[in-house]
Design goal:
single chain; alpha/beta; TIM Barrel
Length: 324
């Protein structure tokens, strides 16, 4: 497993990170299966794990804490996220900063997450939603400063709304933010416009999420694909979005080299951008772990294929805009 420096932090993280969203709150998750996948990834070279309190109200943080405790001889990096106090998703300028991340709430949640992770210090704590209208709130600077001074966290980051990569640039310029998490994949290439160049200029860590477009770039969805009503993907892949997505996936099949699978191509696409520090993938089974972690050894895509994939950019705004 190749590693990259996480921006200006001292953390050298695995190129492929393990995302725990599906382990915490998806209806078809299995705890024994999740534990097996986590243990396998840690034993195969993965060292970066991305969780959030909202993933099952602490469930994924608890699973990650178990792994951290069982893997004390191996340096693993735990990242988690504080949900907005008002539980409104996605972030919006119509909410005041005091409604979303008041200091007392942030300190309480940080301690709660730290206990779940069974760690004295959280490697990376992120705000799970962000709107740049909050940047000038006085509490923002004082809160992050205290978390670092007290040793509660090593680094701080923000997670950006889907399809809004520029809605965080003001915060990045404050110097308070060490990492940014953003949706980036073959379809969603807009972070390349402004966000990635700024992160390179400021030496900030970039954590890519949704590299497989919530599964569509796995290449297995069909017109008959259905999700349970309590599975958020049932609204994300509504009939209109699913139909258009399948059409675009089909076009990608024609440019996928015979020597690689579509998921491998998608992961290597994300890893090919020099601004990217790590790409987090949801891996709930050991099979997913083996296939996805092997991608790191293959390296970036060749320039010709990258150029072809740039033509598949999709500036979309589906009806449902879930965030995580």
């Amino acid at each position: 497993m190749n590693t990259r420096k996480l921006g200006r932090t001292e953390m050298m993280v695995s190129e492929i990170g393990h995302g725990l969203w599906g382990m915490g709150s998806w209806p078809d998750s299995s705890d024994p299966q999740s534990r097996e996948a986590l243990q396998l990834s840690a034993g195969t070279g993965c060292n970066f794990y991305d969780s959030a309190w909202a993933y099952g109200e602490g469930k994924s943080d608890g699973l990650l804490g178990e792994l951290m405790l069982a893997s004390r001889q191996t340096r693993l990096f735990a990242a988690s996220k504080i949900p907005p106090l008002n539980r409104k998703w996605p972030a919006s300028a119509k909410y005041a900063y005091s409604e979303v991340y008041p200091a007392d709430y942030v300190f309480q949640m940080a301690d709660t997450i730290r206990q779940k992770l069974q760690a004295s210090t959280i490697d990376l704590l992120q705000f799970h939603v962000w709107d740049d209208s909050w940047t000038q709130a006085a509490e923002f600077e004082s809160t992050i400063g205290k978390l670092k001074r007290d040793g509660t966290i090593r680094a701080f980051g923000i997670s950006l709304n889907r399809w809004e990569p520029e809605n965080g640039i003001q915060a990045l310029r404050t110097g308070l933010v060490d990492t940014v998490q953003v949706v980036y994949n073959i379809f969603d290439q807009s972070p390349e416009d402004e966000l990635f160049p700024l992160c390179q200029e400021l030496n900030l860590g970039v954590i890519v999420r949704v590299p497989l477009d919530e599964g569509s770039l796995g290449g297995h969805f069909t017109a008959n694909t259905k999700f349970a009503e309590n599975d958020w993907r049932s609204s994300y892949f509504n009939p209109k979005n699913l139909t258009e997505t399948l059409e675009r996936v089909e076009r990608l099949r024609h440019v996928t080299p015979d020597s690689m699978t579509m998921p491998e191509m998608a992961l290597r696409f994300a890893l090919s951008h020099p601004a990217v520090s790590t790409v987090i993938v949801g891996m709930r089974t050991s099979e997913h772990v083996r296939k996805n972690l092997a991608t790191s050894a293959a390296g970036p895509l060749n320039p010709r294929l990258l150029s072809t994939l740039k033509e598949h950019r999709w500036n979309r705004k589906p009806a449902s805009n879930p965030t995580r």
